Amino acid sequence: MVWIWRRRLLASCLCITATIFLLVTLQILGELGKFERKKLTNSGLQDGHPKVHEYRAHRYSRIEKDPDTLKRQKIFEAGGFPIMLWWSPLTGESGRLGWCGMDPCFFTINRTYLHHERTKAFLFYGTDFNIHSLPLPRKAHHDWALFHEESPKNNYKLFHKPVITLFNYTATFSRHSHLPLTTQYLEGIDVLKSLQYLVPLQSKNNLRKRLAPLVYVQSSCDPPSDRDSYIQELMTYIEVDSYGECLQNKELPQSLKNPASMDAEGFYKIIAQYKFILAFENAVCDDYITEKIWRPLKLGVVPVYYGSPSITDWLPSNRSAILVSEFSHPRELASYIRRLDEDDRLYETYIEWKLKGEISNQRLLKALRKRKWGVQDVKQDNYIDAFECMVCNKVWDNMRLQEKGLPPKRWKAKTTHLSCPEPTRFTFSPPTPHWNSLRDMWIPSFQQSKKEARALRWLVDRNQNFSTQEFWALVFKN
Fold first, then answer.
1. What is the pTM of this model?
2. Residues in domain Fucosyltransferase C-terminal (predicted)?
């Protein structure tokens, strides 16, 4: 009877312990918000590629790989994890406890945590960063972190020293960022080496009877790079098949007209038939490199590239793309492309790297090897996860320093983390009709953004909430 009584007592103790642990867990999560996951739909398209929201499918694989679950449990029970508040609601998550290695952080978009004692960092998505609402006054322990992988035209204010240096941590397309996103559109080396979509040169030569040597596909017209002006001039010297809404002279099948179809199998097969593709970025900035260069390289089409001045640092080989910047006028570029079109041996020098499967660019190989995130790969964290964990880890580093009585390390973004020159127009850019001022908008918009950046910095340094009226009054006073 004694042993039965002991077993019952032991079982009761275990039940009571389990109940207490459950109540503590629920209390912690109740304080910080419900643990939930909200699905985001694609909120828009920029230059035919899906916005960043689509790449959040995989979350914190590290928690499953880490065997030290007891240590995690102790940290969790202590409840001392910091809060990371997405001031721009990029993730859509009202509350989630995430583990970054052994560092737990609570990620949320709930602004009621603005004044919570454990709120340590504010995360901003660059496109949505605006002056209408900022977490002010900013306390000494409040870090600001910027995630911005998109075109400078989305928010020019960020590209000036007064604003970019407001942030402690950055994840941008610049290689100088704390978390560089330069290769954000490249899945990996294997897709560059793949011959899956490669059309043999002899077949391309036969297709030339009905296809132009060059293809152009763009539906975001008249951007800051003034690419449409260049291509319009180029068309007077060489034939170009132009799909999309910009300078259109050829129709895609109805099923492929949606810009979201630009990564569809059918679209790939159409583009792969061409010898050359006009790969023009919407802005000219160092390291601003999009799918426009990677897609043709994956398909075995020679890109005629205009965009990042530092593009040679990222190409798979030193002869894998034709650079517009090396030609003084579209006339010279057209002449060179005709020469390659007529000389198979010369043309093949631009795809030899792919045929042999040889990537000679060590910078590119190293960058892909070192990056802590993947592209459309469910086996890896995505770059938003990597950004969140970078901030979480750095916050914990400083918390540990303070526990030892040491001063925290102060991180600060530099101008190189996000910098672009003022947009320019080509000398042969046609005059813009009075009813279409988009092409004429970019230069004055960039110039005004300098004033906006100075005004915003002054108001933030004052460390008080301000109205939009105060901001604009200061902008136009400068």
1. 0.83
2. 214-364
